[in-house]
Description:
mainly alpha
Amino acid sequence: xxxxxxxxxxxxxxxxxxxxxxxxxxxxxxxxxxxxxxxxxxxxxxxxxxxxxxxxxxxxxxxxx
Length: 65
């Protein structure tokens, strides 16, 4: 399935990923390992947790008021 993003955006992201990998090889590998391990959870959910935009409870719809 083709990406929704434009080729320019994809190239920009690819460049930034390569910069991150070169600058922080250990952190990069740890992030890759985390994404691989929890691929089934979904990249969007992992991203929301990484950026503190959500909690496991909110993602599951169990957030208390």
